[in-house]
Amino acid sequence: MSSSNQTILLQEISKLKTKEEQWEPFGWYRHMRENNPVFYDAEQDVWNVFLYDHVKTVLFDHQLFSNKKVRSLIPIPRKMDNRSNINLVDPPEHRKRRALQSQAFTPRNLKEWEPRIQAIVDELVTDMEGDSTVDIVQKLAIPLPVTVIAELLGVPSKDRDKIKAWSDVLFLPYNKEAYSDIAQEKGRVMKEFQEYLYPIVQEKQKHPADDIISDLTKAELEGELLTVEEVVMSSIGLLGAGNETTTTLISNVFYSLLFDKPGIYQELRADLSLVPNMIEEVLRFRFPATMDRKVAKDTSVFGHEMKEGQAIVAWIGSANRDGAQFAHAEEFDIHRQGNQRHFTFGAGPHFCLGAPLARMEANIALTTFVKRIANIQKVEGFKLTEHLIDSVIGQSLKSFPIRLKKA
Ligand code: HEM
Fold first, then answer.
1. Which of 138, 170, 264, 298 has its CA 20 to 30 A from that of 220?
2. Other residues' Cβ atoms within 10 Å of the Cβ of residue 13
3. Distance between CA atoms of residues 208 and 225, nearest Å
4. What residue segments make up the domains of the chain, in order of their start?
5. Statement: residue 383 has pLDDT above 90
């Protein structure tokens, strides 16, 4: 199978063709929840579920829906599928692999990182204070996560542009037109990224420091130390997993402030304790995420005959707007109770390992920004399409200019 037919093409399922439709797929989600909540796409042999309860089952029931998949939404570079990959595996094997990395992301360990994250945010916000208009994606949403994860791993943060560019190629979905080059491009980038990390890992093996790569060089899987190659691949996984997603979250926070609920900026300024719930509401409301699994055995759990080996897509962004779970679900409400039940960080055994880190980064970023900037405004003549990424899949902002009013 070539990498193109191993890839599930979401836009061929949704038929949402334009960037704007991809950015606001919520009307289509509603349509599917109401009319076709368990939908079979015959062309690609893919099941799709849109209701909260169904998405939950797909994410939790690893005996029916496995992560050991052949096809997936993002083409998986072959090298990613190895002993140290914690995502492409099911329990009980998954538990052992995950334990190697989970230590680094416990709330207690993250607490130690808080002052450093605060310092990075302070620097980024100070940098923009002299400007009346800033591109919040380039100035904050991109540099923050990549700097933080580089420092956590123990990789020089001065290399963040390179790291960001590599992880974009490896982890961002591609559109159909780009498929012919995708395997080649991913292969090239993977090689460069590995060559960059090898000497760093070897050095830390000899002289461990207080960082995640050093911890991984000392970690054992079934009584054996990880190989340098395995530590390199785990590091690439972590450098990639937390970058683009956290960038999307921070960018979307600002979009929601200006477009989903204009006026709440002042409410936040008056009461900073609302910030964590604001972040959760953005994760629930404006994050059109999807997860895929392989049907592990024949089942009719959703009332339709699903066959072993077929693929299934859980439309998380739709589950997050399911009115049976969230009252007035289509409304952005920073006072909403229970919005953290969204599935944007997944659920079940693969629940995002970096969720506490992403939440901490977004909370510190927004709190600091709101304290220091008196108000923000839309830029006159803002045209959304000009600021969306070039791919039509997994729409996100590549730039977002906003006007600042200083305190
Ligand atoms: C807003 C930011 C983020 C979002 C929306 C997000 C989303 C997700 C989702 C949906 C999953 C589940 C995958 C599945 O079910 O197969 C996941 C897993 C994972 N995430 Fe995140 N993530 C974010 C940030 C991060 C960060 C900052 C890191 C770490 C640096 C990270 C590391 C991971 C890892 C290692 C896994 C795999 C866990 C496993 O398979 O057991 N994520 N993430």
1. 170
2. 18
3. 14
4. 10-406
5. yes
pLDDT bracket for residue 306 (50, 70, 90): very high
**pLDDT surpassing 90 at residue 194:** yes
**Predicted local distance difference test score (pLDDT) of residue 75:** 66
Give the bridge partners for 292, in sequence order.
313
- pLDDT for position 79: 58
Q: State which of 56, 103, 252, 352 you would mutate to test the pocket of ligand 1, scoring each by most atoms of that ligand within 8 A of its C-beta.
A: 352
Question: Is omega for the bond preceding 92 within 30 degrees of 0, making it cis?
Answer: yes
Ligand 1 centroid to Cα of residue 24, in Å, is: 23
What is the C-alpha to C-alpha distance for residues 280 and 309, in angstroms, rounded to an integer? 35
Q: How many CA atoms lie within 13 A of 149 on its CB side?
A: 29
**Integer CA distances (angstroms), 147 to 124, 192, 195, 285, 329, in order:** 11, 19, 20, 27, 34
The protein residue whose alpha carbon is closest to atom 39 in ligand 1 is 350
Tell me, using a 6 A CB cutoff, whether residue 293 lines ligand 1: no
Ligand 1 within 6 A of CB of 288:
no
Residue 360's φ and ψ, nearest 5 degrees, are -65, -45
pLDDT of residue 101: 84
Residue 5 above 90 pLDDT? Answer: no
Contacts of 328 (CB under 8 A, 6+ apart): none
Q: Identify each DSSP E strand in 288-388 by its residue range.
A: 290-295, 311-315, 373-378
Q: How far is the CA of 352 from the centre of ligand 1 (A)?
A: 4
pLDDT, residue 19, reads 86
324 vs 216: CA distance, rounded Å = 43
Level-2 CATH architecture, domain 10-406 = Orthogonal Bundle (1.10)
Q: Compute the distance between CA of residue 106 and CA of residue 181 in angstroms, rounded to an integer.
A: 39
Q: Answer whether 284 contacts ligand 1 (Cβ < 6 A).
A: no
Gap from CA of 345 to ligand 1 centroid (Å): 6
pLDDT band at 361 (very low <50, low <70, confident <90, very high): very high
DSSP string, 164-231: HHHHHHHHS---GGGHHHHHHHHHHHHHHHHHHHHHHHHHHHHS--SSHHHHHHH-EETTEEPPHHHH
